[in-house]
From TrEMBL:
Its cofactor is [4Fe-4S] cluster; Mg(2+). Residues 47-264 form the Glutamine amidotransferase type-2 domain. The gene is purF. One of its GO terms (molecular function) is magnesium ion binding. Pfam families: GATase_7 (PF13537), Pribosyltran (PF00156). Catalyzes the formation of phosphoribosylamine from phosphoribosylpyrophosphate (PRPP) and glutamine. This is Amidophosphoribosyltransferase.
Length: 505
């Protein structure tokens, strides 16, 4: 049986002069490195998606929306629009502002679009996996943008290949495109059937010549919101993107929901019933922007409550409280409010380091730490410091930051973490190291304290975290996924080649 699907984006790189660039970037210091040799070992963010239906400035709105979601992925960006049944698209490596300029945006006409930013890796950059992926199939054109990961993608891929499908990328997104293309049913039913076969955490935007289809996985693991701007509908991974373009927030897309937008307007449908809501707790702790709301919970407020809860669970007398920028500043403010210990900017992130394309020596890499994050000597010298951070992955980041504070004269450094120990991998789109490389997997809290050179260390309890976030009463863990802390995942994860991390590659 011949393959019915043609991935057309490889042509895009040639037609539009796009190139695949080998880069050694040090980029954002949190996302730097390849997981083996990085300065800061923070968890890698996922991707961001943005969709428009029924607004004449679809491409420009996507540009600004993706810009607001840039923290979710810095490696590549892309936008595909549909104009009177014809697709126009561009994608490239780099930040949104690097991939698109005025001319590019003007070359993308139409009143509907989907866009994507992809998370950052170092070393080899893959244009082939940049999204949206665009396909031709017997029903016309199909563009797909996704955030998350499909755990059983390798199994589905093997099955499809055995039936004759030819894959051109390693992205999960292509799996769903093949499933849709092979179905004899009409498009919406084919999409529902295809999603019914996926196991994982994902938010999908699918653009056809005349429709936009929006879906969230049956557990709502990855955030996705819906808003309105004029007569148009807007979809985004985070509500901050709605704010940026002046759209009004309508609601979060619900787990298992399938929304279809076409000339008849918006149709609300489902492809799965809600079994167990499980929104990613790390979105609240770290990933999402503090000005975003997920399920009506503001992230800044939730992080402040985490800081307060930490103070209740693990108070220590100190002279100043500081937060590791940017994600832990809200929690540090909460800790300070609860204890009365003054909050100070003891650590400063240099926002202007940008990307560098130099592969640094180890000595320079150590200097690079100070180029990107500095301790404020006047604030911490001679002081007992409480340092709030969101997570400890391998432990190297915490060690470096504790040492920065000590070198700047801190007498004591007490580390408080706004999450329970991160001891298990994520299967739903967060790029996590191998389980054996997670320091909390093999070490006790006391051993971690010693490894990061802290005077004391405390991780927020799981009940404390759940309470601080809030959420849905009466649901398992109040509707949160806590799998990386508890090893209790909301879906089956045991497959022959179960995928962990992000589905983008
Ligand atoms: S396993 Fe952890 S990082 Fe992954 S979705 Fe669940 S809470 Fe988020």
């Amino acid at each position: 049986m011949p393959d019915e699907l043609i991935n057309v984006l490889h042509q895009d790189g040639e037609q539009n002069g796009g190139t695949t660039v080998q880069r050694f970037w040090t980029g954002d210091y949190y996302n730097e490195g390849n997981g083996r040799d990085d300065i800061f070992d923070k968890l890698k963010e996922e991707c961001g998606v943005f969709g428009v239906y029924g607004h004449p400035d679809a491409a420009a709105l996507s540009y600004y929306g993706l810009h607001a979601l840039q923290h979710r992925g810095e490696e590549s960006a892309g936008i595909c629009t549909s104009d009177r049944g014809e697709f126009h698209y561009h994608r490239g490596m780099g930040l949104v502002k690097e991939v698109f300029d005025q001319g590019r945006i003007e070359s993308l006409p139409g009143d509907r679009s989907i866009g994507h930013v992809r998370y950052s890796t170092a070393g080899e950059s893959k244009l082939a996996n940049a999204q949206p992926l665009v396909f031709k199939y017997r029903g016309g054109d199909l563009a797909v943008a996704t955030n998350g990961n499909i755990v059983n993608a390798p199994n589905l891929r093997r099955e499809l290949e055995a039936q004759g499908s030819i894959f051109q990328t390693s992205s999960d997104t292509e799996v769903i495109a093949h499933l849709i293309a092979r179905s004899p049913k009409d498009l919406v039913e084919a999409v529902k059937d295809a999603f019914g076969r996926l196991i994982g955490g994902y938010a999908f935007l699918i653009l056809t010549n005349d429709r936009l289809i929006v879906a969230s996985d049956p557990h709502g693991l990855r955030p996705l919101v819906m808003g309105r701007l004029g007569e148009g509908y807007i979809f985004a991974s985070e509500s901050c993107a709605l704010e940026t373009i002046g759209a009004t927030y309508l609601r979060d897309v619900q787990p298992g929901e399938l929304l279809v937008l076409d000339k008849d307007g918006l149709r609300e449908d489902r492809f799965a019933q809600l079994e167990r809501r499980a929104v990613c707790a790390m979105e609240y702790i770290y990933f999402a922007r503090p000005d975003s709301d997920i399920n009506a919970i503001n992230l800044h407020s939730a992080r402040k409550r985490m800081g307060r809860q930490l103070a209740i669970e693990a108070f220590t007398d100190a002279d100043v409280v500081t937060g590791v920028p940017d994600s832990s500043i809200s929690a540090a403010i909460g800790y300070a409010e609860q204890t009365g210990i003054p909050y100070e900017l003891g650590l400063i992130k240099n926002k202007y380091t940008g990307r560098t394309f130099i592969q640094p020596s180890q000595e320079l890499r150590e200097k690079g730490v100070k180029m990107k994050l500095s301790a404020v000597r006047k604030v911490v010298e001679g002081k007992r410091v409480v340092m709030i951070d969101d997570s400890i992955v391998r432990g190297t980041t915490s060690l470096r930051i504790v040492n920065l504070l000590r070198e700047a004269g801190a007498l004591e450094v007490h580390v408080r973490i706004t999450s329970p120990p991160f001891s298990n991998p994520c299967f739903y789109g967060i790029d996590t190291p191998d389980r054996r490389d997670l320091i909390a997997h093999s070490k006790t809290v006391e051993e971690i304290r010693q490894a990061i050179n802290a005077d004391s260390l405390y991780f927020l309890s799981q009940p404390g975290l759940i309470e601080a976030i809030g959420g849905h009463d009466g649901e398992t863990d109040r509707g949160l996924c806590l799998g990386c802390f508890s090893n209790d995942y909301p879906t089956q994860t045991e497959f022959e080649d179960a995928k962990i991390g992000c589905g983008c590659d």
